[in-house]
Model the fold of this input.
Amino acid sequence: MHIAVCIKQVPDSAQIRVHPVTNTIMRQGVPAIVNPFDLFALEEALRIKDATGATVTVLTMGPPPAEEALRKCLSFGADHAILITDKVFSGADTLATSFVLASALRTLNERQPLDLIFTGKQTIDGDTAQVGPGIAIRLGYQLLTYVSKIRELDPAARRLVVERRAEGGVQVLQSALPAVITMLEGGNEMRFADMPGMFRAARQEVEIWNRDGAGITDLTQVGLKGSPTAVAQVFGPKPKAVKAQRIEGATPAEMAEAFVDKLFADFPQLEGELLAHLDQLAGQDSGLAAPQGESA
Amino acid sequence: MEKFDVIVVGAGPAGNGAAYTLAKAGLSVLQLERGESPGTKNVQGAILYADALEKIIPDFRETCPLERHIIEQRMWLMDEDQTCTGMSYRDARFSQEPYNRYTIIRARFDRWFSDQVKKAGALVVCETTVTELLRNGSGKVIGVRTEREKGDIYADCVILADGANALVGSRAGLRPEITADDMALAVKEVLFLPKETVDARFNISGTQGVVIEIAGNVTHGMLGTGFLYTNKDSLAIGIGCMLSDMKKQSLTPYQLLEGLKRHPTIKPLIEGAEMKEYSAHLIPEGGYKALPQLYGDGWMIVGDAAGFVNAVHREGSNLAMTSGRMAAETLIALKAAGKPYSAANLAAYKRTLDDSFVMADLKKYQDVPTLLTEQPHMLGMYPRFLGDAARELLTVDGVSKRAKQQKIMADLKGKRSLLGLLGDAYRFWRAFR
Ligand SMILES: Cc1cc2nc3c(=O)[nH]c(=O)nc-3n(C[C@H](O)[C@H](O)[C@H](O)COP(=O)(O)OP(=O)(O)OC[C@H]3O[C@@H](n4cnc5c(N)ncnc54)[C@H](O)[C@@H]3O)c2cc1C
Done:
């Protein structure tokens, strides 16, 4: 079995510090990490490797420093690492990124056929969740998004069963291989690399692929040129200058009453609208909706 | 089992100086660093003294990320919130290449230095903390234990370059634990300003830079100093005090720094700057008298871990790099001679240090820490007096100059007896001669 895991190096938003006196955000010196969601994907791949002896290849499209993130993956136990880097790739949105990754994965597939491709659910710096699906569509693989758990994997029958979080519940899905899986957080926990892993990561060669290495000829589809989306503006929500109010009362019932009184006092039209709505409901259900106490 | 000629613990200037020199000479070197990458945890003003680095990497100027070369040094005595009495030295020769001192940004510098170490052939492993030393039956250090699984690694010699806390050596009983009396706590901020603004405010251009060292009552009577350095498009400002003093006072280091930034002499210089970074770090300032045993069977201590800091001149990184290099050269020579890394053989490291500026400078100022701890008025009273005297002389108000001088002397005598003044002068001369 051959599994590819696509990762991204991102700034560690948890380590963006706030100055203790002035409360301003300190942007400098924020370390780069492997996108946390990707680590769930990698750990899932490594568990399959532990169980089946699969080969795990990690890859990322990014600037040269992203090599560090790949080495980190090697320290956890990935077998190979490929950095896909080229000046023409910069400024890529998710469409262009999935184009480059899909091309590289096609090349990788020729070297050793791929059975599974993992990505994280999304990145913490973009939050789009579009790259995994983009890869699946481009490669024509099965797509399984928001997967929380792999229940069964049968490489011989080329089949797997996963749990997928969906609105209102969990779906259990069976799929054929090859497939692209985008992993949810929390289903596993990344291992702590042991010392031999650290040595391997420090010593092993990270392969560097430029556009030729990744098998890319159509430069209109990559980088800024291949990116139809542009971020027009980024802004934080304005904090509202409204103070919290305290509602007092001896019992919960009293407090609730005081709260409702206050609400109606502050929003006078609310009382009328609510009553009108209740009347309407009562009319529709012809008595059935009446509170139990009254009907008794 | 992994086995190396040498394991270097820590990737600051001391560890990098050692690892680079060793790897260049062909020894097998493993360097372990607990930070995510070299430099993420390290703090410095930061002034780089070219000489120390040049002796390790002669052509460092070609690739090293340097900010500005220093052409002017200002020494300011300041009170808490009003006055500043200063002296400055600018020298056109400081602008002739090769430059002697530079401002640097440690995070970038350490990363660059570490890249050179890797290129020289050392194996560098980050995010790995050394927890203890491994020893054989006769007590010789034979390797380190890390916090990772299967984490024991062996070497013929371990160089401890783990910085001010020196935990590894203390834990192994190789050196006493560091006390608050020998330790300063410094805080520092990097403030962004456009290059043109820095140039205009400090009367410099190109890559010229200015260094301001600050003493006096800005530390609110505690033993310590402040600084303001010019980077390319930022300023580094910081203040540090002895940890024992800080413990006694209720002021936090951040409050001290905020006070310094509000001082009317500093404020216009940093006006409108955007803070990019703040950090806090310990500085071992015990000086010569606080130096521990520096070597033993299979181990050596270098840099801040050994307490190699010249607090009077705010030199640390150069002593760190130099001691790292000397430790490495000791090992290289022994290996070439086919001699083991026994305590008796490693004593050569101490002898080299003794013959160098490292020990000479530390010895020279060995009485300064005690002087300033025992005579705290040296820091508080004199700066204030100087300020008062200057104000008196410079205020033109119809009072004769002679009368003003008499008033100044009377003020001084009111603060301290004539004998006290003489005693201070003598102590000062003794400590700095
Ligand atoms: C605010 C401030 C301003 C300063 N200004 C100047 C200046 O202008 N010029 C100057 O020359 N000096 C200055 N110094 C002093 C200078 O920073 C130090 O002397 C110098 O950094 C010492 O280098 P080092 O390599 O010994 O220690 P460090 O730079 O502290 O490096 C130690 C390294 O060891 C690592 N480490 C620690 N424990 C372990 C462990 N158990 N396992 C693995 N790794 C470990 C740390 O993460 C760190 O990377 C200043 C210091 C401060 C705090």
Confidence is low (pLDDT under 50) at residues 289-296 of chain A. Residues 199 and 205 of chain A are 12 Å apart (CA to CA). DSSP finds eight helices and 13 strands in chain A.
